[in-house]
Amino acid sequence: MINSLLPNYARIDLAFTRGEGAYLYADNGRRYLDFGSGIAVTALGHAHPHLVAALKDQVEKLWHVSNLYRIPQQEKLAQRLVDCSFADTAFFCNSGAEALEGGIKMVRRSQQENGHPERFRIISFEGAFHGRTLATLAATNNEKYLKGFMPKTDGFDQVAFGNLNELRAAITPATAGILIEPIQGEGGIRPAAPEFLRALRTVCDEFGLTLMFDEVQCGLGRTGKMFAYEWSGVAPDVMALAKGLGGGFPVGAVLATEKVGAVMTPGTHGTTFGGNPLAMAAANAVLDVLLEPGFFERVDKLARGFRPKLDELVTRHPKVFADARGAGFLVGLKCVVPSGDMQTKLREAGLLTVAAGENVIRLLPPLTVTQGELDSALEIVDKVAKNWAA
Description:
This protein is of the alpha/beta class. The chain is built from 13 helices and 17 strands.
């Protein structure tokens, strides 16, 4: 007999009652160091005072009016995101998958409205993860996620991650754009080389294609800059955001240049809940903290100190870990042992992590993490690895 909750999750038998900063407190009485951050969502940790105050203030005023009317908090957030990015315009929705869907529609429509009705296909990359809708599953092109949902939505072609020759060979007269995560998260914490992202920009300019970045997981400070693309020195035409944008409240966004965004005239796209006053209060509060002077410099400094210590763990425990990878606080340990078992052992020791592809465990601390909390996490990983080897 089916449970009242759809059985689409293999949930861990653990429930939390409250959170504070980098810690979660469970109903079993234990405290856990949270280096999963709700899958890179709780960027400011749990119950951040500024975020709590902003939501409390807004919840007593207005929650929802729909996009039939002006929402001043949307206008404020859009301008702030435009001011700190490549973009000229922003659209707000509720999730990363919605942001990807909106961006994909922008890629297609901008090509077709600008004189290329034949262009609708988008090239993505092996190892990608772009969401669970039918279109984003097709862009992801992972057999595990597609099983049972065939036929695959048409309009997507996939090439090897980092292979420029294969990419160029895949371009046809029907190609509209290229979609890539600057750092693959679900795919195993695999950063695209900066020179590869620069080459993609060159290819798009050469062929008149639209370049779209998926920064749902790697954006909003997780790499030590506001957006991961900044490290490459080039910018996309469209970008999807979500996860950390609301600090735990569901918020997604699509950022776009004027050329791409101007074709999205009334009636071309929409959302009932997206950009509601409560979501915008959360996102604006998150930006208040992220844009404080020195915030990203602090994240970058702590992350640069953390990464070599992960490499040291790999060196000390070669029978347990194969390598460390990633950037900023989007990092992972590729395991020799089963990563699921490692995740369980770490949780039992008090550290929460997230699984990823290629037998990797993700370490995604809140951006407000302290040096002491980073050291505690390293100690737990080291202890578990020692016990495993013994």
